[in-house]
Amino acid sequence: MGRLDNKVAVVTGSATGIGAATVKLYAKEGATVVCADVNEEDVKQTVDEVINDGGQAEFYSLDVSKEESVSEFADYLNDKYGKIDVLFNNAGIDEEGGKVHEYPVDLFDRIIAVDLRGTFLTSKFLLPLMMEQGGSIINTSSMSGRAADLDRSGYNAAKGGITNFTKAMAIDYAREGIRVNSIAPGTIETPLVDELAGTKEQEEGQEFREAQKWVTPMGRLGSPEEVASVALFLASDESSYVTGEDIAVDGGIMA
Ligand code: NAI
Known about the structure:
Elements: E1 8-12, H1 17-28, E2 32-37, H2 40-52, E3 56-61, H3 67-80, E4 86-89, H4 105-126, E5 135-140, H5 153-173, E6 178-185, H6 191-197, H7 203-215, H8 224-235, E7 246-249
Helix pairs in contact: 1-2, 1-8, 3-4, 4-5
This protein binds 1,4-dihydronicotinamide adenine dinucleotide.
């Protein structure tokens, strides 16, 4: 028996990194997983892997920052499944923008639109699909939502917003049997880190990784699978009395 048998799970930002690892784990545990992303090419590969492994997954082209796209997605899910049990709001972008007085307005808007507004929109439109039977929403905040980073105030604002938005939803829907928690990853080896700091092969990427290892008590970066296993715990009934929490998965950085 799987820990997510008979559950319909939606994972946003599921083409690569943490989202892709979570899709595979949710499917292995018996969920039917709807993989929603703007990146069709990579997400199709994830879906193929799940299906070849005997799991159930499908792809939906979704831009979480666009109200119309999310609203149409909710209609699609309602027509096809009539409900969802798990929503992992994981889509996110990050980019350095400099100090606030030099930070580009369009970059600030873009990060808030995808990371924070996207989490609001998918929650708003998909919550009605959980009302009858209850469910679990998992948001992706960050250690950058708890403490600040140099030159990344837009990301800090978005992720800090997600942490408290999570708590707001948790108390709003506790009586409906809907639990809402967030995960605060530390530095996880994913394409987002490649884009932000450079790949493992590039000199600046190597320097960044060495610095992250130095500040992380466990002395290493995390893997997408290590975040996925916490996303599984929060999605499953094993966390049935956990709501409004922000769980760090960071090798001890925020301890
Ligand atoms: P990633 O870049 O591999 O994954 C992000 C996913 O979001 C991609 O599949 C991308 O196509 C998708 N996406 C971007 N814009 C979208 C949009 N408008 N609509 C739908 N999907 C969209 O990176 P990673 O690291 O797996 O990121 C997942 C989440 O984890 C993000 O929210 C990120 O901020 C968060 N996070 C990551 C950390 C890390 O060290 N990798 C640390 C803390 C938080």
